[in-house]
Amino acid sequence: MNDPRPQFGIRLAYVARQLPRLAWYAGHEIVLRRLAADARRRSGKSAPAQSSVPMPSQRRIYADMLALLRQDVANVEAGIYPLPDDHDGPLRTRLHRSQLFFADLPEIHRRRQRGGVRDVLSEETRGRRPDYYLQNFHFQSGGWMTDDSADRYDTQVEVLFKGTANAMRRQALPQLFEVFAGRDQRSLRLIDLGCGTGRFLTCVKQAWPRLTSLGLDLSEAYIQHARRQLRRWSRLHLVVANAEAIPASDHSVDAVTSIFMVHELPPPVRQGVIRECARVLKPGGRLILLDSLQSGDEPAYDGLLERFPQNYHEPYYRSYLKEDFPAIARHFGLVHRRNVTTFVSKIMVFDKPAT
Ligand SMILES: C[S@@+](CC[C@H](N)C(=O)[O-])C[C@H]1O[C@@H](n2cnc3c(N)ncnc32)[C@H](O)[C@@H]1O
Questions:
Q1: 69 FRET partner, CA 20 to 30 A, in 10, 77, 90, 344?
Q2: 353 Cβ contact partners less than 8 Å away, ≥ 6 residues apart
Q3: What are the pLDDT digits (tens) for 4-61?
Q4: 215 in ligand 1 pocket by Cβ < 6 Å?
């Protein structure tokens, strides 16, 4: 019989690391809800109308969060990745990010009220990025364009997902493990599209420290943030670039990943990005898209998905909910392997045939 003690040690260490983190972000969420209720009371507005589409119960949400965390620890026990280190920074950094997060809430509220989604467009930014990109995604100040936005982003996302954003990102790693296991990681290349502040690349490097990895993003500020976040790792490159024109030659990459990006792209851009992925992947290479659930994936969540773009400026989310990714991928020669859903996210796995 296997000795259960090491397993117990892993679980204990996991809980010791994750519990304070979950409490930290869940605490932010509670404060956020209170502030929203106060703002509604002051303005005499009632709570948002109930959707006619099903909403998940709190019980279902917590059960799915628990299933995600159990899967996370099971992946560690299976040796797919080490005990995760979320690198949220020391208390001073976390407090600074929280302060930025809360300080932006009144601006977000005002922008939501007046439909201010183009505040990021200025003489300085106009023409420097694709037009769709120059919007205040999430209604946040600076859109994707400023240092404060980059410093605020991880807190914002973790609060949205009740502290499980990194755990959801890590669920893409078993899909990489499937194609990387038993191979010399130094000979492999991975590209992460729309890498943002570098959170997923942190997870990747913890699992494969010597894997040559490239993170690209259209935001100069987010790439600068990612450079600071990831400076401990070698064989890692971060560039400001467009996922529609990946700076890599044809058939040169073993895996392409993209986390929480495709829902932000207009449909023609989504197609252009997947075409690029198919171009740069080696035969036998793998594409992994991790993003929100789509309509019908988990019917209990459909109402939540429908409501999301009302609170967060997400202009292309509704089209994302119905997008047929396997059909787009097929068009560019990729084979859809599987979807894996976990809590509110979905992992779509595609392979380029080995020929
Ligand atoms: C919601 S964030 C996701 C960031 C990160 N992957 C994560 O796990 O949180 C979307 C990111 O996609 C980037 N982005 C959007 N369109 C892009 C494009 N065409 N090329 C490269 N990056 C893009 C944005 O700058 C932003 O950092």
A1: 90
A2: 283, 284, 333, 335
A3: 667 888 999 999 999 999 999 999 999 988 988 887 787 776 666 566 778 999 999 9
A4: no
Both structure tokens of 106: 């009144």
- CA–centroid distance, residue 316 to ligand 1 (Å): 13
To which H or E segment does residue 37 belong?
helix 5-43
| pLDDT (0 to 100) of residue 28 | 95
Six token digits for residue 162: 């009740």
Which numbered atom of ligand 1 lies nearest the CA of 169? Answer: 8
pTM for the whole structure:
0.94
What is the SS3 assignment for 1?
coil
- For the chain, give the mean pLDDT: 93
217 Cβ below 6 A of ligand 1: yes
Distance 242 CA to ligand 1 centre (A): 10
Whole-number Cα distances in Å, 261 to 102, 105, 270: 24, 23, 9
**Is the Cβ–Cβ distance between 166 and 72 less than 8 Å?**
no
User: How many A from CA of 10 to the centre of ligand 1?
Assistant: 33
Tens digit of each residue's pLDDT (9 = 90 or more) over 304-321: 999 988 888 899 999 999
